[in-house]
Amino acid sequence: MTGQRPKLAAIRNVSQSNLAQIRAACAHIDTRDGQGITLADLAAAVGLSPWHLQRLFKRAMGVSPRDYADARRARRFRGELKNGESVAGATYGAGYGSSSRVYEQAQAQLGMTPASYAKGGKGAHIIYAIVDSVLGRLLVAATAHGVCFLSLGDADAPMIAGLHEEFPKADSIALDEAAIAPAVDAVLRHLAGETPHVDLPLDVRATAFQRRVWQELIAIPPGETRSYSEIAESLGNPRGQRAVGRACATNPVSVIIPCHRALREDGGLAGYRWGMRRKQALLQREAERDYT
Q: What is 20-33 written as a DSSP string?
């Protein structure tokens, strides 16, 4: 929700003293919304070396100090708009300097490249692999730029068919387990509860609104949930629950972009592309790992 600081994850191998330093770093960033700060200055303020701060911060928060600062700036930008400020005023008030920086930062925070292919995958060369996971069979597909599709299921054939339906105009879709193994391993470790986030580049098409919804989903700490209306409210569109729901339903890389953390207003699970049983299991596993 707008203005809230993400909670620190209780990550193994991060001491309480280090967690206190990371909290101090977050607070230091929070007080400088709209103002630049170097990693060296931030590290000096909390008594760590830049390298040590970068490593510990990402381990605990799931993002780098710069990404955290960028997310804070994006929230401030939306808050300015919600309060009636013009786009130009909100842009400079949030410290972007120019409107182009707003879109650059939104893209960077999602880890996405500009989509490398037209609708339907025209011109794309896609590789994929299917493996066993704790939630059944897992398919991960990627272009040369990043992960473009992820699915969970019980049988391989429907998952492969779904990939081809998603990209009917792709130049090629080929099984290549070796090439995509690092991405598959990252997703498997996350599903097994070993990591709170999946840190992979993505290559997906999205409207501006979808990107904003997905950015909000990524900002929800593991172990927590938000209602569709809360997400809509944070985007400055309090009546946009259904649009938020559609953005979740059309997420082609669910799990990496955690749409399972979006619930109905009454706390019900609502829908999930890969089945309610898997949505419940994802939420339960995150709660058990105490990532809040």
A: HHHHHHHHHHHTTT
Residues 139 and 176: beta-carbon distance below 8 Å? no
How does pLDDT run across 110-155, given as a tens digit for each residue? Answer: 566 666 767 788 889 999 999 999 999 999 999 988 999 999 999 9
Q: Which residues are the active-site residues?
A: 259
State the residue for tokens 């700490």.
Answer: 221
Instruction: List residues bridging with 175 in a β-sheet.
Output: 128
Task: Give me the sheet containing 125-133, strands edge to edge.
Answer: 147-153, 136-142, 125-133, 172-175
Half-sphere exposure of 30 toward its Cβ, with a 13 Å CA cutoff?
11
Give the separation between CA 228 and CA 276, rounded to whole angstroms.
Answer: 16
> pTM for the complete prediction?
0.64
Report strand pairing: 136-142 vs 125-133. antiparallel
